[in-house]
Structure of Transmembrane protein:
Amino acid sequence: MSSYSDANHHQSIIAQNEIRMIFVQTLNPKPQDFLVNQNRRRVICLIWILLIIYFKIFIESWKMINDVSSKDEYLHQQWLFEQEKIVNQKRDLQEFLNDLQSSSSQSEKPCKNCFKTILRWYSKEILNIYEKNRHVKEEYNQIVLPLQYLSSFVCLINNFLILIIFKKSHRFYLLSNILLIICLCIYAEFFLPNEPSVSYTLFITWSIIIFTIYLLMKVFSTLFIIEHYQLIDFLQNKEQ
């Protein structure tokens, strides 16, 4: 009688595992095998860890986004003022050079070597003007770089999460890396105008946040489904 009961219990466990594996195969993307075989407590612990980590990330992102957005108009006005200052300094130098050239041409024996020396000095002075008037650029970097660093960090965390939760999730992984590449391009200022603008950083940050929310919905739904079926197994085994 006992052996018959044990055989039924063993067959019940096999049937439950087969049902669980069939259901897991219907999930898209499919979870990693080690998650399916984890006990309920570990799955619940993983859910809470992810909730805490991403909740803190979203809070910090929201604070940084508000801070960066509030300084967009200020940076634009400061940049216009800086460009006007550079233009005025270049104009003064050009007027000085024109006057010098006019005086030199009126002379019977113009000092060509001296004039070439002044031209080299003029070129260096133009470069100095651009270097000395980069205060807005430095201030812009101080404002947007923390948000850009955080956005890149979130992309890396998302990549890690995709790899440990899902298998063969090429679509998620590709999209996450595309966002990371765009974020790095904005950080390196590739294909961007000279005028400092926070709109590019805000755009990629919001894109990463929206993708992260969608990814978390997939992750949590998968984990909750695994936990639900493990709870059913636990209750059935407890009754038996």
Q: What stands out?
A: Residues 6-10 have pLDDT under 50 and may be disordered. Strands lie at 30-31, 166-167. The chain is about 85% helix and 0% strand.
